[in-house]
Design goal:
Elements: E1 2-6, E2 10-16, E3 28-33, E4 38-42, E5 48-51, E6 53-56, E7 62-65, E8 70-76, H1 81-86, E9 98-100, H2 105-117, H3 121-131, H4 146-157, H5 165-171, H6 176-187, H7 191-208, H8 213-219, H9 225-236, E10 250-255, E11 262-266
Parallel strand pairs: 1-10
Antiparallel strand pairs: 1-2, 2-8, 3-6, 3-8, 4-5, 4-7, 6-9, 10-11
Length: about 270
């Protein structure tokens, strides 16, 4: 069993970690072994070292070997408001871009319970924030600008379309600079990253529904499966094919629209 929670700018994975080589991705990552320890390698050294949990800074080359143990992996966009607030206690890491984490027995127990029983996206996120000892969430934004809502709707309704900021701004009668500022302020990430996350969410949704990764890639706006797979690797560190094996069961929660509400699909 794997559990996957996919928001608009973060992802939570619970299960056996797919194999990975030395890689880097733009998202910051928190990885915790729920059963044993992790073997971590970072660029510049060939040595592996053991930890129970680790925070990995954005764009830091690394490799994680957890064997057959179940892990929690949380990925956060570094441009997001949540990264700037929640991850603040972890960002003062060592010069190699890593910070080891020692969770309490209560925290590990809560994460194991989440893996065993699942839950909706709000409960899963609250459990992670508490168990991982993250900072205080930012205050909820006020009512969103209708023009931002319209842009979100355009992007989500046409994930395969090659949206440009200029075209989106024109559709809601804003300048590109003003739209980028409003969007980043109210959604939490830059508009181009939101477009990429929207496409990735569509790939996951279609794959869970039974589409091949090639068909899912084309339907989500990628030029081909290789392009999508490379983008997926850059975001999460492993190929999408590692998640969607026919023999594995997957409990997937895909957030419909900010603010948070969830829709569950099962494979």
């Amino acid at each position: 069993m794997h559990r996957l929670y996919l928001w608009h700018h973060r992802i939570l994975y619970l299960g056996v970690s797919p194999e990975n080589d030395l890689h880097s991705h733009h998202a910051a990552q928190i990885c915790v072994s729920l059963d044993a320890t992790l073997n971590i390698q970072v660029s510049g050294t060939g040595d592996m070292f053991k930890v129970s949990g680790v925070f990995i800074s954005p764009d830091r080359p690394h490799r994680i070997d957890s064997g057959d143990a179940c892990v929690l992996s949380l990925y956060l966009e570094p441009e997001s408001t949540e990264y700037q607030t929640l991850i603040q206690p972890l960002r003062a890491g060592k010069p190699n871009g890593l910070k080891t984490l020692d969770l309490s027995s209560e925290g590990l127990s809560a994460l194991r319970h989440l893996f065993m029983t699942g839950g909706d996206a709000d409960d899963a996120w609250s459990t992670c924030v508490s168990a991982l000892g993250l900072g205080s969430p930012a205050e909820p934004a006020g009512e969103r600008d209708l023009r931002v809502e319209q842009v979100v709707g355009i992007i989500r309704s046409e994930p395969a379309h090659s949206h440009t900021v200029t075209q989106l701004a024109s559709a809601v009668h804003l300048s590109p600079d003003r739209l980028m500022h409003l969007f980043r302020d109210q959604i939490g990430i830059p508009i181009r990253r939101f477009i990429l996350w929207t496409r990735m969410r569509e790939v996951v949704r279609l794959a869970v529904d039974g589409a091949s990764l090639t068909d899912a890639a084309h339907a989500s706006g990628f030029s081909d499966a290789a392009h999508m797979s490379n983008a997926f690797r850059r975001m999460f560190g492993f190929a999408p094919s590692a998640l969607f094996s026919p023999r594995d069961s997957m409990d997937v929660h895909i957030l419909v629209d900010p603010p948070f509400s969830s829709q569950t699909a099962r494979k």
